[in-house]
Amino acid sequence: MGCGDENKDVRCASDSIKSMKFIKLKNTAMARKRRSLRWLRISLRIMIILIGLFMIGCLIFDHYVQFRRSDEEMNRIFAERNLNASINYYNTQGRTLRYVSAGNNDSLPVLLMLHGSPGSISYYHWRFSDTAIRNTFKVYAVDRPGYGYSGFGDPEPSIQKQSEMIRPILDSLHKINRPVILLGSSYGASIACRLAMDHPELVDGLVLTGPTLGPGLEKYFWFTFIIEHWSIRWFIPRLFRSANTEKVHHKKELEKMLPYWKNIRVPVIYLQGEEDDIVDTANAGFARQHLINAPYLDIRFIKGRAHRLAQFEWPAIRKCIMDVYERVKPPTP
Fold this sequence. Notes:
This protein has helices at 6-64, 71-80, 131-136, 159-166, 168-171, 187-198, 230-233, 238-257, 283-290, 309-312, 314-328, and strands at 85-92, 95-102, 110-114, 138-142, 180-185, 205-209, 268-273, 297-302. It starts with 5 loop residues before the first helix and ends in a 5-residue tail after the last helix. It contains eleven helices and eight strands. The chain has an eight-stranded mixed beta sheet with strand order 1-2-4-3-5-6-7-8, with helices on both faces. The chain folds into two domains: 1-64; 71-328, 3-Layer(aba) Sandwich (Rossmann fold), CATH 3.40.50. By secondary structure, it is an alpha/beta fold.
């Protein structure tokens, strides 16, 4: 049809075959493209579902895991253990902070306990009943800004500002008896040291457990800086939101403290687990190098222990507290 002769028939047949092959290839390419687009749509749906599940999981986690106890729970614990303890609040620098005071005798020396990150005064509820501590100290513990009931999930990255927010417990809210010993755990050790640097007249001794003292001498996780971005941070559980913000700023905050270590002129005991997987044990060397004016520096390591001394090594911590107290207590008449 329309080819005329035999050669034209051959050419027509050849053109038809080529046309069919082209159409087939085109259809195959289009089918592949459709399959690729289908897999892309499926992948996007799966990704959206996973992100949604992750966000829901974060919200559920935030609701049930907060590392804090309400005033009612704390008061019930105090009553069950027959502790003379009270929960108090105060306002400072536009923030409201919660703290506990415990002890039967207001004339006793003071022990102020500063928790790590994350944490709250709930960590200390069983320590208030320790016989040696109760008989020796009037004890205070505070929910640091961003934790417990001190603006949960709204952290204060400045170490200096945190120490100033905590200072009223020692110089204005109560009539404090000396000596005053600060127990700082992990990140709380940085706050304790800053308080001793800026207000040496308020502090007589330091016990630092698992302390982060040297800039950068701590573990950073691969996601640390990622989840600090505003697009992700809002649905991160508040407990970890506070902890992560502190970690992101910690190195720069510790760098700000470098000129002031010479201001610490009180006995210091440093306690850390030999297998600490969060805070570098090189912090001990930093302490030796920078606490040049401390009249006494004792660095102690616990074999086989990782970072969580506050949960598992209270007897060792208590001994450190009592050892510092023996060095700073007034002489017996």
